[in-house]
Amino acid sequence: MPNDARDGLADTQSQRRSHGLTEFDELLEGTSLDLSPSMQDAATDADVTAVRALAGLPSVDRSADPTSWELAAREFAAWRAGDRDALDRLVRLLTPVLWHLVRAYGLDRQSAEDVVQTTWLALVRNVDSVRDPQALLRWMTTTARREAWRTARAGRQVNVAESQTLEAALPAVGGPDTTVLAERTAHILWRHIGELPERCRRLLRVIAFEDRPDYASLSTELGIAVGSIGPTRGRCLDKLRGLLAADPEWSKLRAAPSAHSDPTLRRGLRDAWEIVDPAPTGVDSAAPLPLLTHALWGAWNAGQRAPQDLGIPRASRHPVIGLVTALPEEFAAMAAVVDDAVEWSIAGDPAGYLCGTIPSPLPGRPHPVVLTLLTEPGTNWAATAVANMLRSFESVDQVVMVGIAAGVPSPRQPERHVRLGDIVVGTWGIIDYDHVVDRPGEVALRQGFPQPSEVLSQRVKRLAAGELQGRRPWEDELALLLQRMPGFARPDPVTDRLYVRDRPVPHPDAVASGHRAGMPKVHEGRIGSASRSLRNADRRDALAREYDLRAIEVEGSGVGSAAFAGGRDWLVVRGISDYGDQRMGRLWRPYASAVAAAYTRALLRRCPPITSHGSRVL
Fold this sequence. Notes:
By secondary structure, the protein is α/β, with parallel strands linked by helices. Helix 6 (84-103) packs across helix 7, helix 9 (176-193) crosses helix 14 and helix 10 (198-207) packs across helix 12 (226-245). The chain contains 23 helices and 15 strands. Among the domains are: 162-276, no CATH class; 316-605, 3-Layer(aba) Sandwich (Rossmann fold), CATH 3.40.50.1580. The chain starts with a helix and ends in a 13-residue tail after the last helix.
């Protein structure tokens, strides 16, 4: 090995000792294959063989019967050739091995899931660099070890397992007595495994999940000479058997002499780890792996460098709030109030998404949200967008339409008067006024519309109660938004002109209508929705009288219908940009979009975290 490489390796080991890593961590990280990233990427099989020879390790003999490592090579080659099913098989084959390898670094379950997903992501990004399929396992395990080491060092995690992680997760198989016995046996075994040296814990964890280990690859993986694996394994099992034999409770549970044989003990090891530390749901089952394999295949099939959803921060990966906008101004305003926003795309879904978080009342428990923009305004486009969102993000439980609408002015009823820049929240529901039965002399709504979200509507009431006490958090959110987006500032109040039968009329007195200078007023009520852009004041007033409307727009009925059909709850929040007459313009659109976005953020900040599918507040 060149002197500079030896010096670099020595420096690295010294740094790791300074961070409190164990002797075996150093052994594991200091193997002949653990070169610097640039050297590792550039190494060819010939280089690896030479380095193994310098380290005193024999070359890999692949003339034996196929092992899991070689099966992985075959599936990798098939996947790279375009076989989609091969990716599923590859993930099912290797994820359990990677999972338990990573967990051996003392990572908690969430961190371990991140590392495993990052390892698969790295494979997709660098698939062309793995020239020899036979080298796949070496590449994957090296990548996983490095990422696990970095994650463990960042979190200063040094324990292989804490007692509070030993929670039973045994599938319901057999009767209750069988389940209780299996759980107790596994926990006793796990306790004694924790008493073994670090090297034994890591080795037993790997061999427990590989029926026919490839000792050459295992040597590379664990940093143990090939000739030492068998004796080390035997010594570790002897130590474990000694600990078990001295435990009276174990003797009662496993009285049969065969219980201490190597095959039986190995099965016990595997069962114990599956109970106290199961791999992520779906890894070993016949069910699909939508989070991992679907995303990986989608990225590969679309020719992307990596599946973007695997790069999303953990807090945003499973959004429970779906935010829908119809116009660029609406999308821009809503995006400005979403924290940690990251663009997200899903294979097979034509829509683009923005994922992030909005704070909840509980520190450290933000709402994961996903934001989308319709291709075109209209009820059908809205319904399609919501259906796509719910199919791509099954975790979404609440759908909120955020944007602009035409307000219904009531100059003769000041308390109901809606002005430009106001906010209308559809807590009373949506009226799909074009979904009617038209009979001679009678036009009636065809059917009732699903009611809006009870959870969100209740929080709207809480905000209204707070306003009576002088608290208006949406105004604070609006001020912050307008600082970031000065182009969305409130237009001059003289541009808010009201006409009745083409004649200008004054607005009611601000005190009587409850309007504060330069600030939006919040209204609750019904919102009319249909696939028509209303520019007719007479028609607006007739609809308002018939259905008691506060605003009229063109997407709410599509959002509500699609959300209801998907078993989700919904709400519509609108900023008023015009009066639905022939003088409709674009001047107030940015500000109306801003007030709707600010109110939505204020609303969600008062709403405790919501679980997916069911509107249950935690």
